[in-house]
């Protein structure tokens, strides 16, 4: 019997020492491979939805996921997307992700960006899924910071 998670939500965050505009422009579903080192390539999926973007991410480990953009705001600096298909199949019913960015306007981190990645899993996700997601989000946020720093230095 699988361990049942005590929560179905993962929240990871970081402060990236780069301006909001430098970080936000990296966060586009078809371009996640440009910062997230776990992704080998991305491609737009056609014929799935006329109303929103669907993108297939090919991970370096051979897995693939199709993500659907649910919400996007250039004004509030957030994107919400959900996994609609995965190969191999997920062991749970679904997950919705939101990445939000805020400018840090004062203090030691002035002119930096606070980034939060929230993943809400369906109740059938077990503890292993939640723990795995935690570390994958941390890795992705580190990769995002590295990409933003590179842009700041260029």
The run of helices and strands is EHEEEEEEH
Strand order of the largest sheet: 1-7-6-5-4-3-2
**Highest-level CATH class:** Alpha Beta
Q: Counting H and I runs of at least 4 residues, what is the number of helices?
A: 2
Strand coverage percent = 35-45%
Number of domains: 1
- CATH H level, superfamily name: START domain
Report the mean per-residue pLDDT as an integer.
92
- The coarse silhouette is globular
CATH architecture classification: 2-Layer Sandwich
Biggest sheet, open or closed, and with what strands and sense?
A: 7 strands, antiparallel
Q: Look at the helices and sheets and give the structural class.
A: alpha+beta
Q: Round the Cα radius of gyration to an integer and report it.
A: 16 Å
Percent of residues in helices = 10-25%
The count of β-strands is 7
Distance from first to last alpha carbon? 51 Å
Unreliable stretches? none
CATH topology: Alpha-D-Glucose-1,6-Bisphosphate, Chain A, domain 4
Characteristic key phrases:
alpha+beta; Alpha-D-Glucose-1,6-Bisphosphate, Chain A, domain 4; 7 strands
């Amino acid at each position: 019997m699988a361990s049942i998670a005590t929560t179905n939500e993962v929240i990871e965050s970081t402060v990236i020492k780069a301006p909001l505009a430098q970080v936000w422009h990296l966060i586009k579903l078809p371009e996640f491979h440009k910062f997230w080192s776990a992704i080998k390539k991305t491609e737009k999926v056609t014929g799935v939805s006329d109303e929103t973007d669907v993108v297939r991410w090919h991970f370096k480990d051979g897995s693939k996921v199709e993500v659907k953009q649910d919400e996007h705001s250039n004004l509030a600096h957030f994107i919400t997307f959900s996994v609609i298909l995965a190969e191999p199949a997920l062991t749970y019913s679904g997950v919705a992700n939101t990445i939000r960015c805020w400018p840090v306007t004062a203090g030691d981190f002035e002119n930096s960006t606070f980034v939060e990645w929230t993943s809400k899993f369906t109740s059938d996700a077990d503890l292993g899924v939640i723990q795995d997601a935690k570390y994958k989000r941390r890795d992705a946020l580190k990769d995002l910071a590295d990409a933003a720093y590179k842009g700041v230095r260029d």
